[in-house]
Amino acid sequence: MTVVHAIRTPGEAYEYALLLEKASEEFYHLAAEHFAGTDIQMLLLQLAEEESTHQSEIEEMRARVLEEIASDARLETDLAPPARDRLERIARAGSLDEVARIALSLEEAARENYKSLAQAASGGLREMFLEMKAFEEEHIRLLRRMIKDINVDPDDPYEIYEQ
Description:
Blueprint: E1 5-7, H1 10-34, H2 40-64, H3 66-70, E2 77-79, H4 84-92, H5 96-120, H6 123-150, H7 157-162
């Protein structure tokens, strides 16, 4: 993993969380544009809206952990940067399956980053990162179901029943 963000303070962790959610929202908007006029566009726009909601929730949580964010406490964790490369891959994506798999990798990376932040933090800040990790896990479940549904062969009755 290429380490770009060395998180050393609660304030840096908070700013990183916002950056991560903004990058995810941007990803889903670009993916929705790429699939304009298709059934999947609405799902991608819904995911973008959820990422926007996550930003608002982080802002609301900030009030609960403001003292921790403003403190001189030290966190020692290194995180991968928000996945800008995935944004570029959307433009080259040739199928819905490919976009869903790119999105899945984005959500898995976000989950791991929130897990690392939670392990490095304490108190309310730790709880905030655990809550964000849970949001990402829900997106992962949704995307895995979507990938499975995309790849079902409707002409194979056994595959349909195995779902």
